[in-house]
């Protein structure tokens, strides 16, 4: 009912806006009014109702004028802070207005860029209209026979600095340039993927048949809506005496790799480079594919580190002479499929089960398969089978005895450390997550670049942290000691009290006292006194119980007190001290 009333008010507001438009002198009021209706049609009512008819008219008219002249393939961008005197309409927010050919990834790429810059978004309008233009790109009107054009209007955080507004406009132009390149070259990149599949069938005998077949199946699987292609380039490799040297094949770049100066990796000095040491070192391995992450984030579709699929090219002697490089993002369907249905991953899963000695239909086999199915998918793609085996077996043991555990995978070229932390679900909260992240970053002398909590039906929560590290500067870390520090950080006051009671009173009596006093201490007591002191206070309460009542007194000093200060506690069982 409330939503229905809001929609009714929105419809009334748009009628008032169109009525306001009809009072103004314009060359084609009917076309403009149709534009206004379409422009705000899908905007949330709660956002639209904050504006007046005159300001809605001003926002739509400004966008209408921006679109008046635009050649096919061009993009119009305006970023400004509306002002009555300068623009004829007002908004408490800055405004982004874009006119472009309609294509995928426009809105999510633009909003992703704003989110990465920490700029809040207060209103979103993204209609797609059919626009008729003449040969010079001049607006002729809205028409069913026109070309589909995208209109993006965003109200964002107020920006008083004109230099920042211009900088934002420049960055959005860069983002949209990359979107256009990726979309325009998509079919050409798909053709290169087909060629790569064909070439894999002709690999030399030095490459194992199972590796070849799994690689072919994996590339075919990527095509089946499991990978968003964003860029492609080809490299030739030669040994210059000091190691592998890569050379970009002229004019091979497509999508976001059209620009030959595009860099994807950071060197140990922090500079960007076309290749990482990981890729170069991997060239020596007799496997046809390289799967990893780039060091730079995508500006198209999702603002995450891009996925890198390198398809090696071999000569007749089995030596690597080149690479077909595909850059993009695994789709949501790739993350939702079970590993047994995914080429390469199914081979890893089979190897792990075989090494563990579990039949797939056994209890442990089913549990292990579930662990691998819920394992962070990027880790499954990138981690070696031996690492996955060790971590998965460790996680299997947690089903038998839940406890705090840490499993890591350190990138062998020291770009990052992947940390899987298991913690009691009832103890997990935001402050603890931050504290654990700080511990990991401090230990590996790095920075937390991402985290992902996972809550299943088990008593343990899992948090996946990614720690960005500096190659050549990652300290040696005692994982068991770090695990202990995480466990201590996760422990609550009551956990320490439980341990202290058992240590002080022994097993049987300690458990009895724990059951009796576990919920007896209010929060202000827990904040002021350590659990070890609570054990002595329990002794005093037990002494009063033996005396069958009365009041007990204990005098004490805190370690920081001077000799002139003395404190005391009063004890009385069953009721508060008056």
Query: Main β-sheet: number of strands, strand sense, barrel status?
Result: 6 strands, antiparallel
Number of helices: 21
Strand content: 15-25%
Gap between N and C termini: 54 Å
**Overall radius of gyration:** 32 Å
Low-confidence stretches are none
Described by the principal axes of the CA atoms, the overall outline is: flat
Q: From the helix content, strand content and strand pairing, which structural class follows?
A: alpha+beta
Total domains: 4
Please give the share of residues in helix.
40-55%
| Beta strand count | 20
Task: Determine the mean pLDDT.
Answer: 89
Secondary structure: elements and pairs:
Blueprint: H1 2-22, H2 29-40, H3 45-48, H4 53-66, E1 76-80, H5 84-87, E2 94-101, H6 106-116, E3 121-125, E4 128-133, E5 139-142, E6 147-156, H7 162-184, H8 186-200, H9 209-223, E7 227-239, E8 244-248, E9 254-255, E10 265-266, E11 272-273, H10 277-282, E12 289-297, E13 305-314, E14 320-330, H11 332-336, H12 345-356, H13 363-374, H14 377-382, H15 385-400, E15 405-410, E16 416-424, H16 430-443, E17 447-455, E18 460-468, H17 479-490, H18 493-505, H19 507-517, H20 523-528, H21 531-546, E19 551-556, E20 567-572
Antiparallel strand pairs: 1-2, 2-6, 3-6, 4-5, 4-6, 7-8, 7-9, 7-14, 10-11, 12-13, 13-14, 15-16, 16-18, 17-18, 19-20
Helix pairs in contact: 1-2, 1-4, 2-4, 6-7, 8-9, 12-15, 13-15, 16-17, 18-19, 18-21
């Amino acid at each position: 009912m409330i939503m229905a009333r809001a929609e009714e008010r929105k419809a009334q507001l748009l009628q008032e806006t169109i009525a306001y438009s009809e009072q103004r002198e314009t060359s084609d009021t009917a076309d403009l009014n149709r534009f206004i209706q379409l422009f705000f049609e899908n905007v949330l009512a709660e956002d639209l109702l904050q504006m007046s008819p005159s300001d809605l008219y001003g926002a739509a008219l400004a966008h209408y004028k921006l679109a008046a002249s635009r050649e096919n393939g061009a993009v119009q961008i305006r970023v400004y802070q509306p002002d009555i005197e300068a623009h004829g309409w007002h908004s408490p927010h800055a405004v982004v207005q874009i006119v472009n050919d309609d294509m995928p990834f426009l809105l999510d790429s633009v909003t992703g860029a704003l989110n990465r810059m920490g700029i809040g978004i207060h209103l979103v309008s993204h209609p797609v209209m059919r626009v008729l233009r003449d040969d010079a790109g001049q607006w002729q009107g809205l028409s069913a026979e026109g070309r589909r054009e995208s209109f993006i209007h965003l109200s964002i955080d107020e920006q008083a600095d004109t230099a920042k507004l211009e900088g934002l406009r420049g960055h959005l132009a860069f983002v949209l340039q990359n979107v256009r390149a990726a979309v325009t070259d998509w079919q050409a990149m798909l053709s290169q993927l087909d060629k790569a599949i064909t070439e894999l069938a002709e690999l030399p005998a030095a490459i194992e048949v199972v590796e070849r077949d799994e690689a072919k199946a994996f590339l075919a699987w990527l095509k089946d809506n499991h990978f968003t292609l964003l860029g492609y380039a080809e490299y030739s490799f030669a040994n210059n005496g000091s190691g592998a040297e890569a050379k970009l094949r002229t004019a091979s770049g497509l999508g976001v790799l059209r620009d030959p100066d595009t860099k994807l990796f950071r060197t140990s000095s922090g500079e960007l480079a076309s290749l990482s040491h990981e890729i170069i070192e991997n060239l020596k391995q007799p496997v046809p594919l390289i799967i990893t992450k780039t060091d730079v984030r995508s500006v198209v579709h999702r603002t995450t580190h891009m996925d890198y699929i390198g398809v090696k090219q071999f000569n007749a002697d089995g030596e690597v002479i080149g690479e077909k490089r595909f850059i993009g993002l695994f789709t949501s369907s790739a993350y939702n499929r079970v590993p047994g249905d995914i080429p390469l991953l199914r081979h890893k899963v089979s190897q792990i089960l075989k090494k563990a000695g579990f039949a797939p239909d056994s209890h442990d086999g089913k549990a292990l398969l579930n662990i691998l199915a819920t394992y962070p998918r990027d880790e499954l793609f990138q981690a070696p089978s031996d690492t996955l085996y060790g971590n998965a077996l460790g996680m299997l043991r947690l089903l038998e005895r839940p406890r705090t555990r840490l499993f890591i995978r350190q990138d062998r070229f020291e770009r990052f450390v992947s940390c899987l932390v298991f913690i009691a679900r009832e103890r997990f909260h935001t402050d603890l997550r931050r504290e654990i992240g700080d511990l990991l970053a401090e230990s590996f002398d790095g920075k937390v670049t991402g985290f992902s909590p996972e809550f299943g039906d088990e008593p343990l929560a899992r948090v996946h942290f990614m720690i960005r590290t500096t190659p050549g500067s990652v300290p040696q870390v005692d994982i068991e000691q770090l695990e202990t520090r995480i466990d201590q950080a996760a422990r609550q006051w009551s956990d320490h009290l439980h341990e202290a009671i058992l240590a002080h009173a022994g097993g049987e009596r300690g458990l009895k006292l724990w059951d009796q006093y576990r919920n007896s201490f209010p929060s202000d007591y827990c904040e002021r006194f350590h659990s070890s002191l609570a054990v002595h206070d329990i002794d005093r309460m037990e002494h009063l119980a033996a005396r069958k009542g009365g009041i007990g007194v204990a005098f004490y000093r805190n370690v920081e007190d001077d000799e002139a200060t003395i404190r005391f506690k009063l004890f009385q069982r069953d009721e508060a001290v008056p």
